[in-house]
Amino acid sequence: FHLFRIDHVQGFYRIYAFPWRPRMNKQFLPLDHNQMLQQTGGRAPHFVPRDDETPQNRETNKREGEEYLRVVLEEAGGMRVVGEDLGVVPDYVRPNLRSLGIAGFKIPQWEGRDGMIIPGDKYERLSVATYATHDHEPIRALWSEALEHLASNAGEQARATLEKIALFAGLNPKIDELDFEKDFYPAIMEALFRCESWIAMVMITDLLARKYRFNVPGTKANLNWTRRMRRSIAQLRSSRKEQKRMRLINELLVKRGRA
Question: Is the whole model's pTM more than 0.70, yes or no?
């Protein structure tokens, strides 16, 4: 391999630990704080080896995380390392990753400042841009959710996400006025490939505009990590619709110097 990704790279700096096994979550989730402490003998969930509440703790966590990652980099040899730095990220993590030459992630709909979506030309070069990972709902599924379940919480959240992606792509955020295949899909793909990130990456379900997902975090769904593409490579190649889609992607990659 030329590069590999460290999932949840924040765990190299500190990790949130629970004093019970995951299989017992259903037993603990209904409890209030005091009831939980009674069940655990006074132990509460906490950061290990320490939290980030003081400047000294933050500096120590950063230093120790860097030490661990330097070992990874040394063992990686000629391979490049990417760190999945998503979620609630301590302010020292991303600068520290960049100082080590480790690319972090840019999820356009999550990259905001002062209530505004950060344009792709403002991304750090040492980064990986993508709209979704294996843990996220594909864009085509969000589109269906937003238009078909307008009054539901899921529909509202999907619409909000799509509006942010539309803004990133320079589109009208009123997605009801857009056609997915003619307007939305080409524009968001070009915007991703146009950004400053070293790597622009598209999940295969987003590339092919599929609705099914590979993992639903925090669940034991039977299809988690077992999902496979429903059509073979030969079937995809013979589809005129997919041929047209791949021609578009190829044109955009060439246009943006990523071919």
Answer: yes
